[in-house]
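Quick one: C-alpha cells for this chain, please?
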Amino acid sequence: MANKATRATAPRRKRVTIMEVAGHAGVSHQTVSRYLQFNGGLKPATVEKIEAAIRDLDYKPDLIARSMRTRRTNRIAIVLPELTYYLPMPFQGATAVAHEAGYEVDVVSLEGDEARRRDRVRSLLESERVEGVLSLTPLGDTLSLEAEPSTPILVVGQYDDKMRSTGSFADGAFAAEVVKHLADHGHRRFLHVAGDQRWASARNRLLVYEQTIERLGLESYGIVGGEWTAQSGYDAARDLPANSGVTAVFAAKDTIAFGVIRGLQDRGMRVPDDISVVGWDNDEFARFSAPTLSTVEDNLELIGRRSMQQLIARIEGMEPPEVPQELIGRLIPRGSSGPAPVSR
C-alpha cells in the first residue's frame, strides 16, 4: 500500500502590531501612532528608532481594518509621464514612505497630448479612489480643473515625456564641487565627457563645469561624448592625445566614467596616478570597481520621501513638515581621484 505523501505547511505569520513596534523602538504606542500619522514634533532620534523598528519587524498596517473604521481608500496615486522599465529614485522613496504609513500606491501614466492628460487627471480627481496625488511630471493647466481640489495634489520636480529629468531633479550644482575637489588636488587641465544633451541634467552639469573652470582660472581641454554609455567614455579615453596635458576627467555619469577608466587602462595609463576620474550618480558598482569610483550622489530618493511625507500630512489634515532647501547631494571621493602627477 502506497504511503500518502504529506506536505508540511508553515504556520501563518502573525501580523506585527503597533504595540510590538513601540516595544521594539522603546517608545509608547501613541508615539508610533503619531509617527504613522505624520503629526510631526518628534525628535530625529525618536523617528530613527521607530523607522528601524518598522524595518526590523517588517511592520505593515492593517489597511482593511483602517478602511472599515475610517471609510477611506488608503490609496495614493503617483503620476509619471509614461510607464517604462525605469522607475526614478523619487518614485522609490515616495512609495516607501506611503507603505510605511499604511497607504497603497497606484501608478498612473499620463501619456498622450494635453487634452488626454487633462481628462485623465479629471477622472482621477473625480473617482474618489485615491486620497492624494503625487505627480513627478508637470501637470500644466490640469491644476486649474479645480481651484481647490478636494483631493490633495503635490507636484515635485519634473520628468518630461521621455522620463528625462528636468527642473530640480536635473540640478548640476555639484559639478562645481567636482571641479573644486580636483583643483584642490593640483589638477589644472580638465576633460569633460558629457551626457546626452537632450537631458537637462547633462546640460546643467556641462554648464556648471564650464562656469567653474572659468571662475577658478583652470583650463578645459575639451568637451566630448554626448551619450550616457560606457562606450562613449571608452572612446573619449582612447581618442585623448598622449600630449593633451589632461590630468583630470569629469564624466557626466558613472557609466561613462567606467568606460573612461577602462579606456585609460587599456592604454597603459594608471588611475588616479596618471589621470583622475570622477563620475556622477553613485552607481552601486562605484564602490566595487577597480579603482573605486569618486562620484556625486544625488539623493533623489530623499526628495521623494520628503515629498510623500508632505502629501500625507495634507491628507491627514496635519501641518506639512518643513523641507530644508539645501542641495540634496554630496561628493564622494574614492580611489579614482588623487593628486595631479608632478611630471605633467
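The longest helix spans residues 200-215.
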